């Protein structure tokens, strides 16, 4: 009975030197299910399924090296096509987001002693340079037109758009605001950026 449980459960008794990347990802996602938000968990699952498993599934965790992470970054930078149908490769910021998933996996493997070094934290990893795009801001006239158009909108829509206009907060930051984030005394918002 104990042997059946060990062989069929999500944390099968696999020797650390034998576990493959694919098997470890199953364990990793079980652990992360309780600590990640549902959206982040879904993003991590998708990256693992669509990008990481095709490249690393059969590699033993103990054999993973920093150069594997660099190869993944190079693949994303040179071969990965955009999902939105536009020409060109994916953005450097997207490459970092995808690589964050891989680095998180190897860091967890290190913590659980499946690998000896935390290769995900290596300073030897090189990322493509991010292009800084010039941000187009509304003119004073455009802001005035937006505020005038908002006069006929419900108060909650008006408040959300005014917060966006006057603070520069992103959509996710605005919808995530809590009363505790508002400092009424100093007339400030304290938004934590990720």
> What coarse outline follows from CA principal-axis ratios?
elongated
Number of helices: 8
| Uncertain ranges | 4-8
Mean pLDDT: 86
Biggest beta sheet summary: 2 strands, antiparallel
- Which structural class should the secondary elements be placed in? mainly alpha
Spatial strand order of the main sheet: 1-2
- The radius of gyration over CA amounts to 23 Å
Approximate strand percentage: under 5%
The helical percent reads 40-55%
Distance between the termini: 46 Å
Give the ordered list of helices and strands: HHHHHHHHEE
How many β-strand runs?
2
Topology diagram in text:
Blueprint: H1 2-8, H2 21-32, H3 38-56, H4 66-78, H5 92-111, H6 140-150, H7 155-167, H8 171-175, E1 182-183, E2 188-189
Antiparallel strand pairs: 1-2
What does this structure look like?
The chain has helices spanning 2-8, 21-32, 38-56, 66-78, 92-111, 140-150, 155-167, 171-175; strands spanning 182-183, 188-189. With 194 residues, the chain is mostly helical. Strands 1-2 form a two-stranded antiparallel ribbon. It is elongated. 13% of the residues are buried.
How would you describe this structure in keywords?
two-stranded antiparallel sheet, about 190 residues, about 0% strand, mainly alpha
Summarize the structure.
The protein has 194 residues and is mostly helical.
């Amino acid at each position: 009975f104990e042997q059946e449980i060990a062989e069929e459960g999500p944390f099968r008794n696999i020797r650390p030197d034998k576990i493959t990347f694919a098997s470890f990802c199953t364990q990793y996602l079980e652990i992360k299910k309780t600590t990640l938000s549902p959206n982040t968990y879904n993003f991590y699952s998708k990256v693992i399924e669509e990008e990481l498993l095709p490249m690393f599934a059969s590699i033993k965790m103990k054999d993973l090296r920093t150069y594997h992470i660099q190869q993944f970054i190079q693949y994303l930078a040179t071969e990965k096509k955009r999902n939105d149908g536009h020409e060109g490769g994916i953005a450097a910021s997207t490459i970092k987001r995808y690589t964050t998933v891989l680095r998180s996996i190897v860091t967890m493997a290190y913590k659980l002693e499946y690998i000896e070094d935390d290769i995900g934290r290596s300073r030897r990893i090189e990322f493509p340079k991010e292009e800084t795009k010039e941000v187009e801001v509304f003119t004073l006239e455009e802001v005035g037109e937006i505020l005038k158009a908002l006069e006929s909108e419900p108060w909650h829509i008006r408040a959300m758009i005014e917060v966006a206009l006057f603070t520069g907060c992103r959509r996710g930051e605005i919808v995530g605001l809590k009363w505790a984030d508002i400092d009424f005394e100093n007339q400030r918002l304290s938004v934590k950026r990720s």
